[in-house]
User: Fold this.
Amino acid sequence: MAVFLITGASTGIGAATARRAKEAGYSLVLAARSEAKLKALTDELGGGDDVLGMPCDVTRLEDQQQLFDRAVSAFGQIDVVFANAGIGANTAGTEHGDPEEWKAMLMTNMFGVMVSAKLAIPHIKKTKGHFIITGSVAGRRTLKGSVYGASKWGINAYGYNLREELKGTGCRVTIVEPGLVDTPFFDDPKPEGLRDDDVARTVIFAAEQPQGVELHEIQVLPTPPLEA
Ligand SMILES: NC(=O)c1ccc[n+]([C@@H]2O[C@H](COP(=O)([O-])OP(=O)(O)OC[C@H]3O[C@@H](n4cnc5c(N)ncnc54)[C@H](OP(=O)(O)O)[C@@H]3O)[C@@H](O)[C@H]2O)c1
Assistant:
């Protein structure tokens, strides 16, 4: 059974992708910091031997090392890694932004993804596997003063660089770039946004392409509302 590892799996896009990946027949490795939420999700997904929940802070190299080691000892291989964990900032912009928040955000949205890639490479080289990144449309547009946007420009670009590094290995790299999605990322509901499952279906669509097809960069946006 192919193995699908997801960071930031406890809520939102990551949890929705876990549900879709289970439906598609993958064994799952689900990582996030909140143990209770991971436990609830693994129970929801049947709680069997094919779903492993692992507490992991992606900003900590040793946590990620344990995550990948545990995944391989449980399942023997890793086929798809979805580097999805990410956070925003409570204070917008640069002048009034909080550098401590920036540090946490860059460590999660960039360093965390890069560490996932480094640890994934030896395994996905063996399986001709797939590395999927949650970028953002915020990394394709100008958002005044946004350090979050800068982290996503950075990680979108990294997806391009990683693809070059993996050329000739049979591995594929996909950057999924959602627009607004109604998830716990925000304190308030975003009814005008996408549902988490809309992005999850896109991730599975990319993962399920035949080996010769690499969907490298995908923007997933809410359809603009009808005008009167
Ligand atoms: N919502 C949007 O409009 C939108 C649009 C474009 C892109 N995105 C991106 O989509 C991704 C998922 O976000 P979401 O909207 O689904 O929001 P979310 O529900 O808040 O999910 C974020 C996930 O990341 C995990 N996480 C955060 N920091 C972590 C860390 N240090 N180590 C491990 N896991 C960590 C969270 O779990 P724990 O707190 O349990 O660790 C949670 O599972 C993020 O990369 C975000 O930037 C979101």
Summary: Residues 7-14, 32-34, 37, 56-59, 84-87, 108, 134, 136, 178, 180-181, 183-185, 193, 196 surround NAP (CB under 6 Å).
